[in-house]
Amino acid sequence: VPEVLVVDDNAPGANRESLASAPMTVFEMIEGLPFEGEAGRGLLFRTNRGEIPAIIHRAPRHRAPSCELAIIWVGGARGGFGGPAGGMYARLAERFLNKGITSLRLNYRQPNVLPECVLDLLAGIAMLKGTGHQPLVLVGHSFGGAVVVAAGVASSHVQGVVCLSPQTHGAGMAGQLSPKALLVVHGKSDSRLPYSCGVQIHDWAQEPKQLVLYEGAEHRLDECKDELESLLLEWIPTTLTSALSG
User: What is the pLDDT of residues 122-170, one digit of tens each?
Assistant: First the structure.
């Protein structure tokens, strides 16, 4: 399991050379203006492997310190913050604030390099865990579907994984996600990654799992964005709160 360390660069004993052998060490998180649009607030992770840009949408705290709920959103092979369905990630991140759920929209240091992108996502998980956010749901589109499967298997803080128009390459560990919940969504008219990819990942996985196929929807799921948003607005809070009630 890859390890991500989050340390205070100014803390006594913090030694970059001694931590250089770690897969990833987050030395500092710099908060500032959003990197895209007006929603959320920019957050830059400074690590021993480069800088990870992110946007955080912080929900007001109202649960026990270790039971705050959160989502991490990642894009496809080119990275970015917006996600499919016309920039759905930013819209949903704002809507989830009313449900008391924090969102972290994460970009990649090296887009399309699966092991590095998984480390980026694990750094986001480690940061949210350190601020009292668990359980978590991970959402990834296309290439990002494989990223969230791998990170979901690696991290015990993940309660659910959502794969949107996912690729099969790198997602073969889906069978190891259980008992974490899996939602796979694919458009039946996807001309980039056929919907058989989503079916295959769903078949690999064990329960609990759900497969949703949208007629006439292409790779970016623009044609079903309203239905998709309604699905996620129900599935994600249900999945997160089931961890607290369980």
Answer: 999 999 998 889 899 999 999 999 999 999 999 999 999 999 999 999 9
CB atoms within 10 A of CB 117: 30
CB count within 10 Å of CB 122 equals: 23
Reduced to 3 DSSP states, what percent helix, strand and coil does the chain have, rounded to the nearest 5? Answer: 35, 30, 35
**What is the spatial distance between Cα 43 and Cα 204, in angstroms, rounded to a whole number?**
35
Provide the whole-model pTM: 0.92
Q: How far is CA 186 from CA 9, 16, 175, in A?
A: 42, 43, 19
pLDDT tens digit string along 88-117?
999 999 999 999 999 999 999 999 999 999
Q: Which two tokens stand for residue 135?
A: 């359980």
Distance CA(221)–CA(10), nearest Å, equals 45
Q: What angle separates helix 225-245 from helix 84-97, to the nearest 10 degrees? A: 40
